[in-house]
Write a structure and sequence with these properties.
The complex is a heterotrimer of chains A (about 675), B (about 500) and C (about 325). Helix content of chain A is about 70%, strand content about 0%. Chain A has 24 helices and three strands. Chain B has about 500 residues and is α+β, with helices and mostly antiparallel strands. Chain B folds into two domains: about 100 residues, NADH:ubiquinone oxidoreductase Nqo5 subunit (Beta Polymerase, domain 2, 2-Layer Sandwich), CATH 3.30.460.80; about 325 residues, Cytochrome-c3 Hydrogenase, chain B. Chain B has a four-stranded mixed β-sheet with strand order 1-14-15-16. A four-stranded mixed β-sheet of chain B has the order 2-5-4-3. In chain B, strands 9-10-11 form a three-stranded antiparallel β-sheet. The model of chain B has no long low-confidence stretch (mean pLDDT about 85). Chain C is mainly alpha-helical and about 325 residues long. Chain C has one domain. Chain C is about 70% helix and about 0% strand. About 0% of the residues of chain C have low confidence. Classes of the chains: A mainly alpha (about 675), B alpha+beta (about 500), C mainly alpha (about 325). Chains A and C meet through α16, α17, α21, β1 and α22 of A and α2, β1, α3, α4 and α5 of C. β1 of chain A pairs parallel with β1 of chain C.
Chain lengths: ~675, ~500, ~325
């Protein structure tokens, strides 16, 4: 606990340092190196706490910094678990940032905001009262807004504005939720909130919290913007904002609804699961429509969080219907997937950042052939992708397996409506996982395989070793959790049990190798054995094949059917690859339309093709809204790219007004 | 039409059996303009000699006429503006003779891939090849995310050498283009200077599946040019051979299309029936495909009584075996689901291209050279010409199935009424020009010959029906999905060898 | 305890060998029966072995500009499916590896094999291979979820996703015939046909309409042999999976005595023969659906799986 607070302080100190030395040659190294150290310390300390080794006082640090607002910090199992997830992601992206030796120094403002963002995300789980929690949330929101503002990507300014509005909206929702939770009492510490909530029914609180975090984790129908925001920042920021930020938001959900309000109950739980499933499915389809690598990953991040929401909602429903074992399974799966998300989404964004940095291209149609040119990046991306696609033996599959086992108990629910609803949610979740496999195939196939489709892609090369390790470490972690999930699950199960208020019976484990929770009728899975067996059999096969047929292979140019070899035109395209799937799934929902202007026979004119598809939420709801809001935004955000003093001043003003709002409302 | 052409220029003597008129440049242009106003006039063919261009036209009443333009300056006004079917014929003329088609809508090379030992092989003085072929410019397709899928010329799913280029978006075809000419053997050059017998053997090898039709068309053209009258028994035997060939090919293609659409059972059965016909042909005429059995002046082999029995038995077997298969086809909704609406050809397109055969008949064009202009012995036989309106793969299949039945009846009538007598007449060696239209299973073969005084070939142009069907196949495929590509392809079954010359 | 463990390991080894022999035999048997049904003589039963051996001995030609993924895929796909085939109880249920992967993990293994195949096809950068990958993706997207939904129904009825347990549960008479199970069987059969590129969905001689052929077009020699063998294994997996869940009778259970595995082998051979005849009949009698109907087909399979699960969950609660 003190170790974590110390690292948070270290991060906060780094900010002015970054501001001061930003222009200097070592500013970036200093800030990012410090961020690496701080997040590694925090992650290690949190992990130790999770494992039962408490370093220092367990009691919350009351009235520590700002006595008039009664800010307090502390650590419990739930906080510790999320601190591990957040700091892992932060460590990886900081390592990546440390390794980037790119031309053009980073702007001081962004260098200052980066550690503040990590600090803010650490403060949220550390908080022991609603003020501190919202303070951390606000700090993280403003810091990421600043980071987006200083990004040089096209559209970053717009993304920053939208992001600020979304976090402000989320903050307001949470504020009202906490105010409702606390009732008449002005004491917003978690203990008193818990007491107050136990006295009065939760009412609208879960809905407000879900709405509050919906913008942060991109739950439908607020999923429209998140991908754009995530695609707009530089890689290290996007990795943090896509990997760690939503996990923090998810923590707020668990803390506010499960811990403080005592669980969302059947209705809100089912709603959460339903929204999560719809989000995952919609995101998977949308990811097939996008043509830019960062945008695809942004959408994928949204979808992966949808699965987390499915598990969480399912756990709430099971818990409220007297099935604690199933609830424990579902929540364990969701918690595991939350950590997975922080690792593999961060990894995917870092790898995409490396690709974009090496090629200057982010369109799938302009990449290709990178597996030979950037082998390490390709391997890391493949691991992260396989985790996203829930393929064994990666960690994504373990979470999916747990969730499936939990859903298998849906027939035990008493209410037939819930049973069928659970089936529908399960079907949507499964379908989205299958679609994500296609998203990964499409991304990896077009970015890394085949022939390079632009000169830049042809000239690409792997990044420097430090940045390389920032991708390989999470990739190894993905595989490690995948093959040996039990030590981690042993840490997760008490967290889930504490949240659900059930004894730790949900997951008795058989041995070290088998993932065989009692709650799942003794069904078992062992990633380690599967991986080992596949590798053994592959080696065996290779040896046998070599004995029979030798190992000679002749390299030959591709057979173009006897036609002159360079066939003009691309052999495959990003949208063409997804078209059959979209035609099946997205015809209605996404208004998927194709227009072909064919030339009649004998006509030498060009045949024309046009494809149209749109997110239904966007067309129905946000486009009309957006037109009006856009005008307002343009007026408000005039100036767009602020200088350093301006942005810091604005940030301070924003924070101050948020805190003031909090104080007034409380 | 005859009057109009006659008004444009004088008739040339010695051209049989239809008139040939020599037009001057203005008259030729007037003809092009008039063609634009007369959709019913069909361009049956366009071919060249070293310094002149001919075209063969046919009107709705079945009158056929040839118009000729002398072009000493090496250029002629293109017919392609009025008749898109002329495009590839004129591109071939440019490649072979070096005559320049003016205002040709598509001036790219066609048969010549710059892989021949000479350029312009049929011109007076063939120049050496350029040696550095430029990539063939395929027709453009515009749009986001299109991809190109090339097939062939050597590819497992393409039977004959042809390069098919598909521009698609996922499963949606945006453009389909076939590049032909890989099977070019220079038959038109090879026959020059040979006697009619030797030439007939070459022409018979133009396309193996319609060898009887090509040989028959050549024989009829030669006979018209020399004024030879083949003996009646030979005429009837030729018709028998032609009908057997038609039956065999329709059976094979019907089965192959059904197999492509996913019923291998029908394909296997049809293959057996086709084999039955081929075996009977082998037994009766000594060759499974009946190659070289039709020769100028008559036929090379006579039909014995046992052989006639053999054929009769085969016909009966086909009748017994095929009709249940057709009923099976009609009853299978899942099969119809593949074929109905797939590979549609619009009627007006078919008219513009003058597509004959089952391709034209499947979209309402009832042209059949056996009926109009007609040749012996068909006027004496009773048969119907099946026509469908839809223009899709299903229509083509059903037209072909009904044609099999008609051909069975025709073959039986011929066997019944086969006159006795000799089967071969001598062909005089004399100069002359002859044109023949013979219905092959694909459509009408148009063959034009000019003979020298010593009876050798000066110029021979066999025009396979595929020339006019390939462009429609492209259009038909563009209206379906990638997965229906081979179904469309099979339902047309255009030939490369017959087309590439 | 130790004796049991050794027995399980022995059975597992036997099973790993058995599937390698049984998979080409099943494929050969199906084509033999199909040929007979269509009035042809057909290739001999052992032809697949000869084909594989011939391919193994041939020189492998690898396309320029392909990565390690292209050459590694045949080995990985083959071993993945080999393992998957080894996990489905065929003649005996007491397999050593059974707890390593349940039915859900089996679906995951099949998905891994599919993804690898698609990636390898994309690695060639060839238009036709990409086309195959595009189509395979459609099958993959529909087959995996539909299979999981069908499994959902079956597993909920049998209270397990572990295959040996399911078989034992059925053998112990714990399952009465249910409509939902019949629908699940239908869904699994539809998927087996789609996933193996068999007749109503795809089939031999499908030309440009093919799904499976296009992705392996650039493979030759031993790589092609492994891909083909993997295809045969996949067919065996689906057949033995359905046999294991729905007709486990004859299977040797742990503690059944030494003769039981022999009986189990005979029973397994009979079941596979039945499956082969059924498959050949389906192939001869059905019409191949077009790719444009593939989505519908997969959708129906998915609906069947869903329906089975819904029926089951409604009837279980009642």
């Amino acid at each position: 606990m003190p170790a974590i607070l110390t690292s948070v302080l270290l991060l906060l100190v780094l900010a002015p340092l970054g501001l001061a030395r930003g222009r200097g040659p070592h500013g970036a190294v200093l800030v990012h190196g410090g961020a690496v150290i701080a997040s590694v310390i925090a992650a290690a300390a949190a992990l130790l706490h999770l494992g039962g080794f408490d370093l220092g006082a367990a009691a919350p640090l009351r009235d520590a910094a700002l006595p008039w607002l009664r800010i307090s910090f502390g650590l419990d199992l739930l906080s510790a678990y999320f601190l591990v997830a957040v700091n892992l992601c932060a460590a990886f992206s900081s390592i990546s940032a440390l390794g980037q030796r790119r031309e053009g120094s980073l702007e001081a403002g962004s260098l200052a905001a980066y550690p503040i963002l990590i600090a803010g995300m650490n403060l949220v789980p550390l908080a022991r009262d609603a003020y501190s929690l919202l303070l951390g949330w606000g700090v993280a929101g403003v810091a990421s807004w600043l980071l987006l503002l200083s990004s040089e990507e096209a559209g970053a300014g717009r993304a920053a504005r939208i992001h600020l509005i979304l976090s402000g909206f989320g903050l307001a929702c949470l504020l009202i939720a906490f105010a409702l939770l606390g009732g008449s009492s002005a004491d917003l510490s978690f203990e008193s909130l818990r007491v107050a909530a136990a006295a009065s029914p939760a009412g609208l609180v879960p809905a407000l919290v879900i709405l509050g975090i919906a913008g942060g984790i991109g739950l439908a129908p607020l999923h429209v913007w998140l991908p754009g925001i995530l695609a707009a920042g530089p890689a290290r920021v996007s990795a943090l904002m896509a990997g760690a930020m939503p996990v923090t938001a998810y923590y707020v959900l668990l803390r506010a609804v499960f811990d403080l309000a005592g669980g969302p109950g059947t209705g809100w739980g089912a709603l959460l699961a339903g929204i999560g499933a719809a989000t995952a499915l919609g995101a998977a389809l949308r990811a097939l429509m996008e043509a830019d690598l960062p945008r695809i990953l942004g959408v994928a991040a949204v979808g992966s969080l949808g699965l987390v929401a499915v598990g969480t909602g399912g756990a709430a429903v099971y818990d409220a219907n007297g099935l604690p074992n199933a609830a424990g399974l579902a929540l364990s799966g969701a918690l595991l997937h939350g950590l997975n998300h922080a690792v593999f989404i961060g990894l995917l964004f870092l790898a995409a950042g490396a690709v974009v940095a090496a090629t200057g291209e982010m369109r799938l149609d302009r990449l290709g052939g990178l597996v030979a040119r950037m082998p390490w990046t390709a391997a890391a991306f493949l691991a992260g992708g396989a985790a996203l696609a829930a393929l064994p033996p990666l960690n994504g599959f373990v979470a999916a397996w747990l969730l499936f086992q939990a859903f298998l108990q849906a027939p035990d629910l008493a209410d037939p409506g819930l049973r069928i609803g659970a089936l529908a949610v399960a079907a949507a979740a499964i379908l989205s996982a299958a679609l994500f496999a296609m998203v990964v195939v499409r991304c990896f196939g077009l970015v890394f395989l085949g022939r390079p489709r632009s000169e830049q892609a042809d000239m690409a090369a792997d990044p420097e070793p430090v940045e390389r390790w920032s991708m390989l470490l999470p990739a190894v972690l993905c595989a490690l959790i995948g093959v040996l999930p039990l030590p981690l699950l042993a840490l997760i199960e008490p967290v889930a049990a504490a949240l659900l208020g059930t004894p730790e019976s949900s997951g008795a484990r058989a041995g070290v190798l088998w993932l065989a929770p009692q709650a799942a009728f003794g069904n078992a899975y062992s990633g380690l054995l599967v991986l080992a067996m596949v590798l053994c059999l592959a080696v065996l096969t290779a040896a046998a094949v070599r004995r029979i047929g030798g190992r000679a292979a002749r390299r030959a140019p591709p057979w173009a059917g006897g036609a002159e070899p360079p066939i003009a035109g691309t052999p495959l395209s990003a949208s063409g690859l997804a078209q059959p799937i979209l035609r099946v799934f997205a015809m209605q929902a996404f208004a998927f339309r194709e227009e072909v202007g064919r030339a009649p026979p004998g006509d030498t004119g060009a045949a024309r093709y046009r494809l149209d598809c749109r997110d239904p939420v966007e067309t129905l709801f946000f486009l009309p809204l957006g037109r009006r809001a856009g005008r307002l935004l343009r007026r408000a955000g005039r100036g767009g790219h602020l200088g350093t003093p301006g942005s810091v001043g604005l940030a301070a003003a924003a924070l101050a007004s948020l805190m003031l709002l909090a104080a007034v409302l409380a | 039409m005859l009057d109009f052409i006659a008004s444009l220029g004088p008739a040339v003597p010695g051209h049989h059996p239809v008139p040939r008129h020599r037009l001057d440049r203005e008259a030729w242009i007037a003809l092009v303009l008039r063609l634009g106003e007369e959709p019913g006039w069909t361009l049956l063919g366009e071919w060249a000699e070293q310094d002149r261009v001919h075209c063969c036209l046919c009107d709705e009443a079945g009158h056929v006429v040839v118009a000729t333009l002398d072009c000493p300056e090496g250029r002629f006004p293109s017919l392609s503006l009025a008749r898109p079917g002329a495009v590839r014929l004129e591109r071939a003329i440019q490649d072979l003779f070096g005559l320049n088609a003016e205002a040709l809508t598509d001036p790219r090379p066609w048969l010549d891939h710059d892989a021949w030992p000479v350029r312009l092989p049929l011109s007076a003085a063939p120049p050496p090849p350029l040696g550095n072929p430029e990539p063939y410019p395929f027709l453009p397709a515009e749009g986001e995310g299109l991809h190109v899928i090339p097939f062939g010329p050597v590819h497992g799913t393409v039977a004959e050498p042809t390069h098919l280029r598909l521009t698609a978006h996922g499963e949606t075809i945006v453009r389909f283009e076939a590049r032909l000419g890989f099977a070019h053997r220079g038959i038109e050059s090879l026959v020059v200077g040979r006697g009619v017998e030797a030439a007939a053997r070459l022409v018979a090898r133009l396309s193996g599946d319609s060898t009887v039709a090509h040989a028959l068309a050549f024989a009829q053209a030669v006979e018209a040019a020399t004024g030879t009258a083949p003996p009646p028994r030979a005429v009837w035997l030729r018709a028998l051979l032609a009908e057997l060939e038609r039956i065999a090919n329709h059976l094979g293609d019907f089965g192959a299309t059904c197999g492509e659409a996913g019923v291998p059972f029908i394909e296997a059965e049809c293959a057996l029936l086709r084999e039955r016909v081929a075996v009977a042909a082998e037994a009766a005429f000594g060759h499974r495909l009946m190659m070289d059995r039709v020769v100028p002046g008559g036929v090379a082999v006579d039909l014995t009584a046992e052989a006639a029995h053999e054929i009769d038995a085969a016909l009966q077997a086909v009748r017994d075996g095929f009709l249940p298969l057709v009923r099976l086809y009609d009853a299978r909704e899942s099969l119809q689901d593949r074929t109905v609406g797939t590979g549609c050809v619009a009627r007006d397109q078919a008219m513009r291209f003058g597509a004959g055969g089952f391709v034209g008949r499947a979209c309402g064009l009832g042209r059949d050279a056996r009926r109009l202009p007609g040749y012996a012995p068909y006027p004496e036989l009773a048969f119907e010409i099946p026509v469908a309106e839809e223009g899709d793969a299903d229509a083509r299949l059903s037209v072909r199935a009904r044609e099999v039945v008609e051909s069975l009846s025709l073959a039986e009538q011929i066997l019944d009424r086969l006159p006795d007598g000799p089967v071969l007449a001598a062909v005089d060696a004399c100069a002359g020009e002859g044109l023949a239209l013979v219905e092959s299973f694909r459509g009408e073969v148009m063959t034009w010959v000019r003979l020298a005084e010593d009876g050798t070939i000066l110029r021979c142009h066999p025009r396979d029906p595929s020339w006019l069907q390939w462009p429609l196949l492209e259009a038909a495929i563009e209206r379906s999905a990638v997965s229906d590509l081979s179904l469309c392809y099979r339902s047309f079954n255009c030939t490369c060898a017959g087309h590439d010359l | 305890m130790i004796v049991q463990a050794i027995g399980a390991a022995f059975l597992q080894l036997l099973q790993m060998g058995l599937v390698l022999v049984a998979a080409p035999l099943l494929t050969g048997f199906v084509s033999q029966v199909r040929a007979r049904l269509m009035g042809r003589q057909g290739p001999p039963l052992l032809q697949p072995f000869r084909d594989l051996l011939r391919l193994l001995r041939k020189e492998a030609v690898v396309q320029d500009e392909t990565s390690w993924l292209f050459t590694a895929t045949p080995f990985l796909v083959f071993s993945t499916l080999w393992l998957a085939a080894g996990l489905v109880p065929t003649f005996a249920s007491g397999l050593a590896l059974a707890p390593a992967a349940d039915l859900v993990a089996l679906v995951g293994l099949l998905a891994v094999a599919r993804v690898l195949t698609m990636l390898a096809a994309l690695d060639t950068g060839a238009g036709f291979g990409a086309l195959g990958a595009v189509r395979q993706s459609l099958v993959a997207v529909l087959a995996g979820p539909a299979m999981l939904m069908a499994i959902f129904a079956v597993a909920a009825a049998m209270r397990s996703t572990s295959l040996p347990r399911m078989a034992e549960f059925v053998l112990s008479g714990g399952v009465e015939p249910r409509l939902s199970l019949a629908i699940a069987l239908l869904a699994l059969t539809m998927l087996a046909l789609a996933d193996n590129a068999r007749m109503p969905v795809d089939g031999p001689g499908a030309g440009s309409a093919t799904i499976g052929g296009a992705t392996s077009l650039e493979y030759s020699g031993r790589h092609l042999a492994l891909i083909e063998a993997a295809g045969m294994l996949r067919l065996l997996i689906h057949a033995s999976l359905i046999a294991c869940i729905f007709v486990p009778w004859g299977m040797a259970l742990p503690g059944d005595g030494a003769l039981a595995p022999v009986i189990g082998l005979g029973a397994f051979a009979a079941k596979m023969a039945g499956a082969g005849v059924a498959l050949a009949l389906t192939e001869v009698l059905s019409t191949r659906i077009g790719i444009r109907r593939l989505g519908e087909y997969g959708g129906w399979a998915l609906m069947a799986g869903m329906l089975a699960a819904i029926f089951l969950s409604v009837s279980l609660g009642a």
